[in-house]
Amino acid sequence: MDNGLTLGLIFGNRSFFPDALVEKGREEVLAVLDKQGIGSVCPSPKETKLGAVETRKDAKECARLFREQRDKIDGILVSLPNFGDEKGVAETIRMADLNVPVLIHAFPDQVNRMGIGQRRDAFCGKLSVCNNLRQYGIPFSLTREHVQSPDSESFTRDLTFFKQICKIVRGVKGARIGAIGARTNPFNTVRYSEKILESAGISVETIDLSEIFGRINQMGDGEQRVAKELGEIIRYCSVERVPKEALIKMAKFRSVINGWVAENDLDGTAVQCWTSLQEYLGFIPCTMMSMMSESLLPSACEVDVMGALAMYALQLACGSPSAIVDWNNNYGDNLDRAFIFHCSNLPRSWFKEVSMSYNKIIAMGVGQENAWGTCEGPLKPGPITYLRLSTDDAKGGITSYLGEGEIVEDSTQTFGGWGVIEIKNLQNLLRYISKTGFEHHVSICRGWVARSIQEALETYLGWDVYRHD
Length: 469
Known about the structure:
Helix content: 25-40%
Shape: elongated
Radius of gyration: 25 Å
CATH topology of the largest domain: L-fucose Isomerase, Chain A, domain 3
Strand order of the largest sheet: 10-11-16-15-14-17
């Protein structure tokens, strides 16, 4: 199965349409889901007529099945092989009370099969189902095309879209983010409201850097757990220029953080990466954070909890490591391009080539010997989706912007982790970010998944979303 993804299935039926349409349609949809590796929960033909939902009795039985497996079901697919019974569909979802995403699918008619025994009228029935769901206050998603054959490429694309939505909603609703250290005092940019997050089902666990320092100081250089983490770091990227003393400090830090993350069952972290760690322990945690993000445990800089949460949402959508960067520099006179940059903690898979270096900016204040630990190199070109989440304390909610762009091939040489991003009408996006007071950090993932993220955040989580086109 697709990471355990399971859908509750509701096949709509209306009695004065041919039963054969529902029987065959049910088989077709189940076969497609099985091929896609998606699990399903739905009534059998023994439990309801045709294994579909039409009457109040059918709705109660289907809802009972859904409730019994509520912890397993990630979303609900409503499929209409014929017109369907709109009230039965709505009542099933209401009584099941799963509070998961819902996708509405309808079968197409064929122009040469419009006789009384062959015509589906699902085109019309879908409108009635959607009307009733609106009356019942049930949010739902739609396929791109109003009607689709289950074996069509468009239905396969919409299933992928819906799977992404289900993963985002389930993951973000119960997300647990670790805040490691206090926000650096001059960095008001990344302030946020824990209470607003908690009201959305998102928890923040905190730990003071003094606790991290204390645990590190209790570890000996020759301990097995230190040697294990040191080996992981050396295998992760080229460290030939880095003093061994700095690598051992990083190994201890990684051991402590990994233990704390596991103890607290966290989905991501945000780290106070400057300058306490450099001044009192003598290293930069960027590579440790890069390693966490690469292993699908996103880690954001500068205690940017909202940045880490956005990284997690992107990761759930695309299924690969996400990153966090600054909107950093203009690209000459090209108004649709800009440099994105961090010192950096970007995941290894984002780079063309990567080696461990020192933070050339922070080194000016703490010395090069205390600033080793960054991942340095140019980013691979390719399509990306960007997302920023922020708590709006004045309005008491969560707001966001997102869009799609591309990292383009470029030969510029600089330091840290860098790339050139191209976004149509970039100046309008930057104006929006500036006018609405969003942070200069933005989270990114590989691939174009803005549609599923927008649907998940807007339709099911109820957050404000601005999508840049």
